[in-house]
Amino acid sequence: MGVVLSLTGFSAHGRHGHSGGHGCSSSKSSHSSTNDSNNSTTTGGGTGKSKKSDAPAHATVVSCAAPGRTKAVLQVTSDLDTQRTVDVPLTFEGSAGTVDRTSVRVTLKPRETQTVTVPMVSPSKVNDVQRCQVGRLS
Fold first, then answer.
1. SS3 category, 122
2. pLDDT, tens digit (0-9, with 9 covering 90-100), for 120-134
3. How many other CB atoms are there within 10 angstroms of residue 93's CB atom?
4. What Cα–Cα distance (Å) separates residue 66 from each residue in 38, 52, 71?
5. Burial 63-77, CB ≥16 within 10 A → b, else e
6. Tens digit of each residue's pLDDT (9 = 90 or more) over 47-56
């Protein structure tokens, strides 16, 4: 259950891997009827559904961090016919804005989909997390 979103204004800074990617995105989320609320999808760029994305992959939030669970689970899918390593930025958001940020590096075979677990950098803030947003994949 996700919504395709357009993102703008993302820039990556710092280390990549399991922590350190920074950026911001402009996006919307949808509510799920399961305990894994606020799932979202990103196309990795573009300004609308009709514009083709230039991102090498796209990611969907399968489940976000919540009390008792300090990790998000993402499904990352390659949009290319060649193997590629992509950086997937993730922002944990709460009612007052950004709670935590991180990124994960994933190597995908052509058109492959992988499920990846992304731990919070500051797990002590998990009670403030209300939703997860995927930034622009690069």
1. coil
2. 999 999 999 999 999
3. 20
4. 11, 33, 8
5. bbbbeebbbbbbebe
6. 333 345 688 9
Structure tokens at 120: 């919070």
Distance from C-alpha of 112 to C-alpha of 66, rounded to nearest angstrom? 28
Q: Could you tell me if residue 75 is left (phi over 0), alpha (psi between -120 and 50 degrees) or otherwise beta?
A: beta
CB 59 within 8 A of CB 73: no
Strand partners, 106: 86
**pTM to 2 decimal places:** 0.63
Strand partners, 100: 92
Query: H or E segment at 40?
Result: none
Q: Cα(51)–Cα(69) distance, rounded to whole angstroms?
A: 36
The number of helix segments (H) and strand segments (E) in the chain equals 0, 7
